[in-house]
């Protein structure tokens, strides 16, 4: 077994040890090597919101920056994409789609009139980029698909699904064309065509894939035939697919390892549903908002699922205990039952996924408010607090480290907010360009995607 970098673990000189001591020494060395290998394997931000639902702890992480300060490097990214960067082994992976003709620029905020139900007439190129984390140098780029694109919302992109990596392979999923697997050097390994599927009002797709124990899980809720499927991550072969009684949704699934069992949790318009690893329905829960976007996650032995289309009366938050079966929906005026630990009828966000940090559950609202609840009980700590008095819109999900919450607005301003029971905005860090993608955190750096650039931000040394 070797340490990172290829150096062999040192072996004790045999002549100095008895057989028993040699055995113990070898066991200790093996444990050290195993520990180092595990640390190297975990050294990644491999998926949307990373391995811990947006939480990272590192005293060396930056807390202030701008477009010109605390910037290790920045790189122009062609085309348009709102996918988040993922990182493993000092390599950043990113997706984008390049149009042949000039595109109508996206518009910030929530509004009517963004539907573009007619497909664009020009050819598009679906791209994957690999960037050196340390230097910002483009290591390679690959065109994985070329062709006509379906309709999409003005604010969406054809590369809004965040890719996923295991460090050796990279999986790019585009809801309108399919899945593409490449090795870390950009060599295509397999592809699986999917779509395009009709989406509500031609808004386009956005749900990201999830990788777990050699399987790639994909949810595609659409207007034709919604489904959840499992693909063999090594070959791309379909292992199973189950139909879903859902219309269009944009929520990424979550693999919940609760300690009792492992299940795939999906948020939908009609129902929250959980499936076992063979695609069998385990339990379901409703009602939900008419559009589901935020990603489920877990903490403190609870599963948190929410949705909150701004025009709905029901914008629920559910905290679910493990081990459920069948329909566990609340009845009448209930706010809890055997498997629903707590529930709020009107607390859910539309786009950003919530965050649990410390003992608290934070909700970032699209219109620029933050709320805080006790994560275990759901009790309100503070109600809606406006982040910016002048107003701001938010799509990216919040993240946290070093006792602070970070909220990136569509204007490119990251608001630094004190974590804990008292709301206080500590700073504003501007990048002066539209941002919808949730950043990645890796090796004491923040990796932020704007409309046209990728930044690596770090503390000045």
Please outline what is shown here.
By secondary structure, this protein is mainly beta.
Q: Count structural domains.
A: 2
User: Which outline best applies?
Assistant: globular
Care to count the β-strands? Answer: 34
Largest beta sheet: what is the strand line-up?
1-3-4-5-6
- In CATH terms, the superfamily of the largest domain is YVTN repeat-like/Quinoprotein amine dehydrogenase
Low-confidence stretches: 1-42
Radius of gyration from the alpha-carbon trace, in angstroms:
22 Å
Strand content: 35-45%
Number of helices: 1
CATH class term of the largest domain: Mainly Beta
Largest sheet: 5 strands, antiparallel
Mean pLDDT: 91
Alpha-carbon distance between the two ends: 35 Å
Helix fraction by DSSP (H/I, runs of at least 4)? under 10%
- Any idea of the CATH topology of the largest domain? Methylamine Dehydrogenase, Chain H
Helix/strand-derived category reads mainly beta
- What is the name of the CATH architecture of the largest domain? 7 Propeller
Question: What does this entry look like structurally?
Answer:
- This protein is mainly beta and 461 residues long.
- The chain folds into two domains: 1-41; 42-457, YVTN repeat-like/Quinoprotein amine dehydrogenase (Methylamine Dehydrogenase, Chain H, 7 Propeller), CATH 2.130.10.
- It has one helix and 34 strands.
- The strands form eight sheets. It has a five-stranded antiparallel β-sheet, with no helix packed on it. It has a five-stranded mixed β-sheet with strand order 15-16-17-18-22, with no helix packed on it.
- Strand 29 (404-408) and strand 30 (413-418) form a beta hairpin.
- The longest helix has 23 residues, at 19-41.
